[in-house]
Amino acid sequence: MIVVVALLIGIFFSLSMESRQAWIGPLMRPMMTLMNPAPKDLNFATNRKTENGLFNVSFTSNPSPTPLNQIHTWTLHVETPDGKLVENAKISVDGGMPQHGHGLPTSPQVTQYLGSGNYRVEGMKFQMNGWWEVKFVINNGNSQDRVVFNLTL
Amino acid sequence: MKKMGLWILGLGLVMVVAVSITSVIGKQSVAWTADEIKLIQSLSLRALAPLAQYPSNKYAQDEQAAKLGKRLFFDTRFSKDGTIACATCHVPALGFQDARALGLGASIGTRRTMPIAGTAYSPWLFWDGRKDSQWSQALGPLENPVEHGGARTQYVQLLEKHYKPDYEAIFGVLPDFSDPKRFLSIAGPVEDRAANAAWQGMKEGDRELVTKAFVNMGKAIAAYERQIVLMPSRFDDYVDSLSLANQTNKNLTDLEIAGLRLFIGKANCVQCHNGPLLTNNEFHNTGVPMPASKVKDDGRASAILAVKQDEFNCLSKYSDATSNDCAELRFIQSDTHLLERAFKVPSLRNVASRAPYMHAGQLQTLAEVLQHYSYAPVAPSGHSEIKALHLNVKEREALIAFLTALDAPIIAPE
Questions:
Q1: Are residues A138 and A71 in the same domain?
Q2: A38, part of any domain
Q3: Which candidate in A8, A23, B90, B358 could, as Cys together with B96 as Cys, close a disulfide (CB 3.0–4.6 Å)?
């Protein structure tokens, strides 16, 4: 038994470096490159329902894909679940990196209602690679709901 | 037979240890993945976008302004006692810094002199980001009592005396500042009480004339500073010839490559030291120790209000920018609690030849810096964002080797 194990070890290390990588590479790599892997079941959709289902919200980043270290704008689109545009809502923005316990490097704001359910979000910035959350609280005058988008840079 | 099996097993174990040691350190045992190559390429100096317009300084690209700026940068007359120039602390031969823990101008300061190359890309200047442009940064030390120590009327009178034609060729007519009744020789909104009182006593219109010329000095100096540029390092040469198919180029040693692997992997330096300048130009509390002077310094927290109220910020009347160009200032993170004792992430380019380290030169060597990140001590105030890396001796050696491969010449106009 011992001989078999020792032989297997011996055979493994007598293989070329390249073929060894093929065996152990996939096992080693996640450990080596990701200190804090984001949870596996994260939803990275850019179109999401708010937590209580009051609104459907989507965002687009300008420029796209979302840049690192560059202040930029987003456009947020808000509808009701039955497809009615949500106009002139009050929307606040927040966010951060859950694994680092810090917020956004800026204080982004919704600065303008653009019509057609679209809102301009100015002052977006992400200064680190990794998993970010961006939260919007949307108040249409009657009710309020919250949506959290996940993104990785 | 059993004995021989044990021998083989023993031999196998020795090989496991030996191979795992060499794979971590000496040899590059694992090829880069496509994602890793993409990340590494994002750090190359060649990924740096060419300098674009600088909205708050319309003279930023002006060649004549850069020439005037260079002369001002080296002119010691622009100081209280005629001995201090920008170049006193930003020494060209030392990569435009001074290799001291604390800057030494008219007297000793409380912070480490920062290098200049690459700062045209930063939305915030100084360790705490209390200025939001290169030109407004350049004006700060001129009126700081521990740096140049002078005041703006003195400077514009020197400008009139020594640089009038050069100034006028760029900025138009330089007002006549020679009337000693209207323009007292040392007056400005500075700490010095007499100079400050003299400034308050001047007519608003005259103060405005002085400040406009003073601002243009800063814009000329910034035009020069934009031309102080980083050259590619061996690391950049390595990245240039790196691809998924070809990973055998010899621009970096195996030890340096192991350091790069740690930099983007286990040590995760790239989290903040990202992009071609190896900085995100933002502010983080990494729990760096108190300086020997025990001077309390809350870093970014105090600078937020300062830059919002700065007379020379992006939204000020002296800025050439429109409000749309000032997004960084308009949407500034104002939570002082979050940014207590946060300091700017420095570029790591030329870092190995730029000891001592941190905002007050608290750490003497890169080995001390890695020791700090290995243990992640509690911050003297605020909350440190870093977690202990537990780097072993060989890993530290590899990281230092990699950081040294970032050394490269800095080019400045002749």
A1: yes
A2: no
A3: B90
Q: What is the pLDDT of residues B55-106, one digit of tens each?
A: 999 999 999 999 999 999 999 999 999 999 999 999 999 999 999 999 999 9
Site from A72, A110, A129 to mutate, B interface, most B CB atoms within 10 angstroms: A129
The answer to whether residue A84 is domain-embedded is yes
Note the pLDDT of residue A102.
82
Instruction: Decide if A100 touches B, using CB distance below 8 A.
Output: yes
Domain hosting A56: range is: 47-152
Separation of alpha carbons B23 and B265, rounded Å? 15
Give B281 to chain A, closest Cα distance, Å.
Answer: 8
Distances in Å between the Cα of B369 and the Cα atoms of B86, B109, B288, B340, B374 are 28, 22, 9, 21, 9
Residue where the block lists tokens 């002749």 = B414
Instruction: Determine the Cα–Cα distance for residues B346 and B128; give it in Å rounded to an integer.
Output: 11
Q: Which residue intervals of B184-252 are DSSP H helices?
A: 193-201, 204-225, 234-240
Instruction: Say yes or no: A61 and A102 in one domain.
Output: yes
Q: What residue type is B229 in one-letter code?
A: V
Q: Which of A25, A35, A105 sits opposite B333 (nearest CB)?
A: A105
- Chains A and B form CB pairs within 8 A to the count of 108
Contact check, Cβ <8 Å, A32/B261: yes
- Closest in A2, A102, A105 to B6, CB measured: A2
* Reported ipTM: 0.87
Is B168 exposed, middle or buried (CB count within 10 Å of its CB: 0-12, 13-18, 19+)? Answer: exposed
pLDDT tens by residue, B252-290: 999 999 999 999 999 999 999 999 999 999 999 999 999
Domains in chain B and their CATH numbers? 27-51+231-299+340-411 (1.10.760.10), 63-225 (1.10.760.10)
Q: Most B CBs within 10 Å: which of A5, A16, A127, A131, as the mutation test of the B interface?
A: A127
Quote the mean pLDDT of chain B.
Answer: 94
> Rounded to an integer, what distance in angstroms lies between the CA atom of residue B25 and that of residue B256?
9
For A55-70, the pLDDT digits (tens) are 999 999 999 999 999 9
